Amino acid sequence: MPVRSVLRMGHPLLRQVASPVTGFGTPELRALVADMDDTMRALDGAGLAAPQIGISLRVVIFEVSRNPRYPDAEEVPYTVLVNPVLEPLGDELEDGWEGCLSVPGMRGLVPRYKRLRYHGSDIEGRPIDREVEGFHARVVQHEVDHLDGVLYPIRIRDLRDFGFTDAVLPSGAPTAPD
Ligand code: NI
């Protein structure tokens, strides 16, 4: 399956609300997720949403493997999440640095809910229901935002906390990959 090009901030598709998936386990859905997997891995991303490769459907993938360069980044299991729904658990917010393959070379400090429950289904329509916190919760919130036409810069509280990766962060600082 090919690595697809990732739409960049400003593209109208990234501002649209994506449509729910209605057919599970179909060849089309499998092909979409295979392309998303290849694209995310080729670009070393932590996650990817279908609209980023031009498909306006409610599908996200994410995965964070243990990386010695980022010892503080928690591991997040590889997940395909279709038609996700988020429920914050409590109202505690936490600031963290984020990047996005649609906003290459930039980082911003973004408040996210610290704890949340998410549910949805996998590619076959089997239910997924998890309670997570910290970096895992952040990654899910970032990816699901893409399905509602929201990119992280709009959530930065103070735009002084937005800039080029190498300028904003001291070298070696732990950060979410793009
Ligand atoms: Ni993103």
Give the topology, please.
Layout: H1 27-42, E1 47-49, E2 59-64, E3 76-88, E4 93-100, E5 103-113, E6 115-121, E7 127-133, H2 134-147, E8 162-164, H3 165-168
Antiparallel strand pairs: 1-2, 2-3, 3-6, 4-5, 5-8, 6-7
The structure holds nickel (II) ion (NI).
Can you characterise this structure?
- The chain is an alpha+beta fold and 178 residues long.
- The chain has a single domain, classed as Peptide deformylase (Peptide Deformylase, Alpha-Beta Complex), CATH 3.90.45.
- Helix content is 19%, strand content 33%.
- It contains three helices and eight strands; from the N terminus they run αβββββββαβα.
- The protein has helices at residues 27-42, 134-147, 165-168; strands spanning 47-49, 59-64, 76-88, 93-100, 103-113, 115-121, 127-133, 162-164.
- A five-stranded antiparallel beta sheet has the order 1-2-3-6-7, with helices on both faces. The protein has a three-stranded antiparallel beta sheet with strand order 4-5-8.
- A hairpin with a 5-residue loop joins strand 6 (115-121) and strand 7.
- The longest helix has 16 residues, at 27-42.
- The protein is globular and about 45 Å long.
- The structure holds nickel (II) ion (NI).
- Nickel (II) ion binds next to helix 2.
Task: Write a brief caption for the model.
The protein is of the alpha+beta class and 178 residues long. Helix content is 19%, strand content 33%.
Span between termini: 22 Å
In this entry the ligands are:
nickel (II) ion
Q: Flag low-confidence runs.
A: none
The side-by-side strand order for the widest beta sheet comes to 1-2-3-6-7
CATH topology: Peptide Deformylase
* Amount of helix: 10-25%
Q: What kind of sheet is the major sheet? A: 5 strands, antiparallel
Proportion of residues in extended strands: 25-35%
Classified by CATH, the class is: Alpha Beta
Helix tally equals 3
Topology order in helix (H) and strand (E) letters = HEEEEEEEHEH
Architecture (CATH level 2) name: Alpha-Beta Complex
**In angstroms, what is the radius of gyration?**
15 Å
As an assembly, this protein is: single chain
How many β-strand runs? 8
At the fourth level of CATH, the homologous superfamily is Peptide deformylase
How many separate domains make up the residues?
Answer: 1
Averaged pLDDT, please?
A: 93
Q: Which structural class fits the helix and strand makeup?
A: alpha+beta
